[in-house]
Amino acid sequence: MTSAPALLELDSVSRRLGGRAVLHAVSFALERGDVLGLLGANGAGKSTTLAVIAGLLRPDSGHVRLDGQAIEDDAQACRNRIGWVPESVPLWPELTVTEALNACGRLRGMPRATRQAACARELARLQLEDVAGRLCGQLSLGQKRRVGLAQALLHEPDLLVLDEPGNGLDPLQTAELRGLIKQLSPRRGIILSSHGLTEVEAMCSRVVILHQGRVQHDAKLDPRPGKLAVQFRAIAQAPVEAAA
Amino acid sequence: MSALAVARLDLRRLAVRPFAWTLGGIALAMMAWQFLLGVSAFMHAQPTLPGAASGAGFTAAVVAPYFLNYIQLCLVIAPLVTMQALAGERGAQRLALLRAAGVSGRAIVCGKFIARLAFLWLLLIIVATLPLVLAHATHPDWGQFGAALIATALCVAALTAIGIACSAFAAQPALAATAALLIGEGLSLIDAGVRMTGGDTGWLGYLALHTHLAPALRGLVRSEDLVYFLLIIALALVLAVRRIAGERGRG
Description:
The complex is a heterodimer. Chain A has helices spanning about 45-55, 75-80, 95-105, 110-125, 140-155, 170-185, 195-205, 225-235, 240-244, and strands spanning about 10-15, 20-30, 35-40, 60-65, 70, 80-85, 160-165, 190-195, 205-210, 215-220. By secondary structure, chain A is α/β, with parallel strands linked by helices. Chain A is globular and about 50 Å long. Chain B has one domain. Helices cover about 85% and strands about 0% of the residues of chain B. The model of chain B has no long low-confidence stretch (mean pLDDT about 90). The chains are: A alpha/beta, B mainly alpha. The interface between A and B is medium-sized, with 30 and 24 residues.
């Protein structure tokens, strides 16, 4: 009897950027309902990994699979199942929040009625109704992040990819983000990158630690306080060969 | 479908930005001034023009140079309108947002091209309206008018496509505008020296915009001229699509 494929599976993914190997045979998997925290120091390869998952970068070798299907085989269908929120939320500053969300739905080919219903649903879910008529360029960072999350959720993706979602948020906004991710996680897989250990401890069920483009730790989150910090420090300070 | 969605989004963004309105306003004011000067010069010269009695001289003396002025203006405007299309969007990560939404490189390039071209063609329609307003009194040569309009529209499309291609290749919008301006001016002036000395322009002549505009402005639509403009448009867009589509590999 064969087990069902994981929602997301990275199989020996390697990638070079600017002549430098950024990812070395990165492999891990993510199940539906999991919130996976991708930890690592600056330059560890977190954003590159997420860009490969979101289909923005092609791996030099290895495969990214969604429910067992390689993304390269049907990139369009796979992208329709992924929602991506980059670190700096790239909104159109001259459009209102409603216009921006509508445009995102249109770009994804959603029919008018579905699009409008999805926009209303996400505005309500992310508590953006008050700013629906405001220009994206006039929003606070926390509001921009919520709009970014709304555009990624419009098509109800199976996999949500969040690059540094907590960056620049105040404590109240961080708490709201945690609540939101908990609310979103049961029906989909979520992968997020972060520098913040407390953020990962509060939101994630699994942790992958990258160091110089290699996976050095991939396990369920140890709930003991401070344990993750010890693991992370040991990996981040170890030479790559020894840690591997 | 995605290309139209991109075009619609970009048109909406152009419509709410002061940049497009300012640029359009300045361009139309300059064209209106050129037109008034043309009409004024024509009225002073009318008694001496051989075709003036039939009224056909108005198109040759005023309308054709007027359309040529719009093309010369577009040598500057098109790079300004297109410079942000891909270079600026890439810098702000909005290109990545489009690609993450499943929009192909071809749809992105075509959508951006359609939006910018729609803006410049809208200006052309307004520009063409001025001579039409006087049509009752001037009895234009409609064949020549139509030929000049078609050639102008195609030339503007070619300049827009060049701008889009430069925007796809350049890292900065300013670099894209400079490159598009240089290429446009290059095509405009490539055979100027030979033309001034009256020699045979050869293949340089075939590359020059003037070679393919002059017959149309005289009222002659030649298939080789249409092919020339369509080739420039196709070549520029294909290069832009290849560049954008290759970004997944390059990073």
